[in-house]
Amino acid sequence: MPVPSPPAPPPPPAAAAAALLTRMLYFQMVIMAGTVMLAYYFEYTDTFSVNVQGFFCYESAYRKPYPGPEESSAVPPVLLYSLAAGVPVLVIIVGETAVFCLQMATRDFENQEKTILTGDCCYINPLVRRTVRFLGIYAFGLFATDIFVNAGQVVTGNLAPHFIALCKPNYTALGCQQFTQFISGAEACSGNPDLIMKARKTFPSKEAALSVYAATYLAMYITNTIKARGTRLAKPVLCLSLMCMAFLTGINRVAEYRNHWSDVIAGFLVGISIAAFLVVCVVNNFRGRQPEHEHSHMDNLAQMPMISLPRVESPLEKNHITAFAEVT
Fold first, then answer.
1. Could you give the dihedral angle defined by the CA atoms of residues 188, 193, 198 and 202, in that order, rounded to the nearest 10 degrees?
2. Alpha-carbon distance 71 to 205, whole Å?
3. Residue 167 phi, psi (nearest 5)
4. Into how many domains does the chain fold?
5. DSSP label at 182?
6. Chain-centre distance of CA 56, in angstroms?
7. pLDDT of 27-43, one tens digit each?
8. 314: in domain
9. How far is the CA of 278 from the CAs of 30, 73, 147, 283, in angstroms?
10. Is there a domain that residue 173 lies in?
11. Does 205 reside within a domain?
């Protein structure tokens, strides 16, 4: 009879952990690619049809003058997208480089994070590890914000303040004899269809959401990462300046009659919510790996047996119990 071959030895724990982490990295890359593709379909294709919302005859909320194309705005899309994509990348790279150099100078290199690719078997440069993680989460949140905003615009189909100027409805043909008459249907407009479609996508405001998302993420990064002395006023000034720029972007959208106040406020809420969620729940307030001595100290405290001390009755408590017994 043939002798059965012995079973193959299990892989070492380090190799198994590395393989698991590698699969998790591939899964995260697939999620990132899917997010980018969904944002692309929302932004540049007609896959999702916009809700056609009606309006009342001579409605004053939509009769503002047409401010011109987006490129003529005080905050054009090229400037906004460049700042939202470039400034956080530059600040995070500079901040992580400074933190890495300070930790190397203070001989705190052993408390750095390990690589996500190889688990516990070897180390990778912590500067690359942290920078890639923080920038990757930021990019994911930027595309997620765009998806949330586009989904809201497609579902609501809210009209811009200058919608009537682009729609150019023929009130006589539509029979608008009363202000309370409601007009519905895409055939009510006779203007440029592309401009009319853009005028139906204002809620929430994309510019407000992207600007406040970038400002909130960057402000929380600066607050949680920079721990140097003498920055008690520098950090608040820098963070408040970022938030002020985002706030002015929203005000500019209203002042130029490109969005309503409700559109801007909704965009602010979307951007702040996504940034706060990613910072608090995903990157854990930009904290690194907990040092090993803290883990061992907590483990020792958890394994320490509880010591019960005998209870000593005080004379005051005894007199109080006696008095209570006499009253009852």
1. 10
2. 16
3. -70, -40
4. 1
5. E
6. 37
7. 888 999 999 999 999 98
8. no
9. 18, 31, 15, 6
10. no
11. yes
Instruction: Report yes or no on 107 lying in a domain.
Output: yes
Q: What is the number of residues in the chain?
A: 328
**pLDDT tens digits along 148-202:** 999 999 999 999 999 999 998 887 777 777 767 888 877 788 889 999 999 999 9
The pTM of the full predicted model, rounded to 2 decimals, is 0.80
CA distance 260 to 251: 10
Residue 317 has pLDDT above 50, yes or no: no
What are the residue ranges of helices labelled H in the chain?
A: 13-44, 77-105, 126-156, 163-167, 171-174, 193-199, 206-225, 234-255, 261-277, 292-303, 315-327
Which residue, chain included where needed, has tokens 């401009």? 195
Q: How many CA atoms lie within 13 A of 211 on its CB side?
A: 29
What residue numbers bound the domain in which 130 lies? 14-52+67-160+193-285
Q: Give the SS3 label for residue 55.
A: strand
Determine which helix (DSSP H) or strand (DSSP E) holds 56, and give its type and residue range. Answer: strand 55-56
